[in-house]
Request: fold
Amino acid sequence: MNIKRRLTLKFVLQLAITGVVVLAISAVTLTWILLRFLDISLTRDFANVGLEQLVESSKIDENGIQFSPSLLEQVKKNKGWLQSLNEDGQVESAYNTPKDVPTHYGPGEIVSYWMGAQPFPYQLALWIQEKNGKQYTLVYGAPNVLDPLLKKIKEDSSVDAKELPEIPDDLKKEIKSAQAYVQLIDSSGKELLSYNRPNMIPTEYSVQELALRTMYSDRYGYHVLSSFDKESGRTWIIGEPNIKGADSGKTMRVPEEVKVVIIGSVAMLIALLIAFILLSLWQAHRFGAPMLHMLVWLDSIGNAIYTEPTDRKGLRRSRTPIGKWRRRYRVFADVMDSIEKLSATLKRDQVLREETESLREEWIAGVTHDLKTPLSSITGYAHLLAEPSYDWSKEEVHKFTTTMLDKSAHMDMLISDLAMTYRLKTGIKPPETMGVELNTWMQQALEQAAANPAYGKQRIVFLPAQTEVKAQLYTPWLERVVNNLTANALLHNPPDTKLTVSLIHHQTGSGFIIQFADDGDGMDEETMIRLFERYYRGTDTASTSNGSGLGMAISKGLIECMGGQIAVESHVGKGTVIKLIWS
Reply:
């Protein structure tokens, strides 16, 4: 998998994880809000909400019906009580039931208590439901605070159209203890008197206002009862907060549901912010650290430091101690490999440049020596010939001039080779080629080369191809290559070394190979690799007076300019094989 696909997969995975985290936080927040809504509903109106849940969550065993402990705790918290009745009205199980509550009900008795036809100290709620083939009747009772208070107020306070009544002190204490409030309004809805009234309760009512507050206590936060006196046209209003303990003095009361939504939303935003910060830090750790590491590495390369940056322990940051990629670096493995290869290449090139510079300086020193040696001879003989005090014979003059010509030719060869190397470096093209038959041409070229007295006799063997080999070549360049390779094989090997030159014609096509194989000392691997470098000499410059040290580099350049390739194989003690290949 390439880096593009890996990065795409990683980023898609990151987005998927982010989406899952967001959904999880949202789901947890929504669940919490719904549970809080349920708790508020159970607290406000357990009779309508909690009884159904009690039946649904109940379990039947050998001991009878068992209710959810959390719902029973809510019954107790609401200061209520619970009874389960069978079909005969007998109480089967009870929870938190006061002593003044009956343990058996007649059919009409419980209905009269429930509908308020008969006085009863508790507000009742009934829930009848069938479960597992059996019909259950739950009776839920809660303290009835407002009805008794309203009756006492009507009884203890005279209602006269001309005078305002007074609420007795003991009744005021009872009203305040119950966190209730009392109002008396006239026929037009204006307040005549009040006690313990919160600021948010209006002082004037319309027909719709009082009706809505009586019907929808959840909307206004207060449970309200009223009693109208037909003779005076006045109305007593008494109310208590849905949730006890609430601060009734506030001018504006925020509904519990709104508080829950606000708290849940703020908590969700904080959780999302923390999650995004953690995900960002994790992503920076996973992606930012490797990218920063690569930038530091590239900066080091720019400063000619080609090793990978290490940590405090001297270990590479991208690798484990055993050399494997660390997890966060795996996605950038291709890039890291490329940087590592670039570093290795630049480091190798730097070493080669330094070695090449050193070799070039050595080569220049050697060439300078090679040029000065024949030049010194020429200068010396020229001074002898110019000396008027000596009368040289013809033989001596001939000897002097012959030596001067030889040294001049050697200097010319050195200068020519140096010029050729730079011409090849600039990419020269061969002059007009000519068609030759290589069997005949190679035979003649090798005979001319073998005539050099420095090579000895019968050291060159030519093996022609079985068929004619015709080629388009620039023969002066090819002749120079043949001479260079012949001299390299015969002058830098033992005197008994033989050179076998073979012409091999490809069976298919027009390709051919000219092979130079000797049985000399061979070369080590470093010499073989650097054989064709311009400034590399496998032997000391001063080891021989023949050659410039550029012959192999020139040969390689000439062959490549003529469309061929040159290859070398050599082993120490087993000789050397050099192939000129045209495919």
Observations:
- DSSP finds 16 helices and 17 strands in the chain.
- Residues 248-252, 540-545 have pLDDT under 50 and may be disordered.
- Residues 333-386 form the longest helix (54 residues).
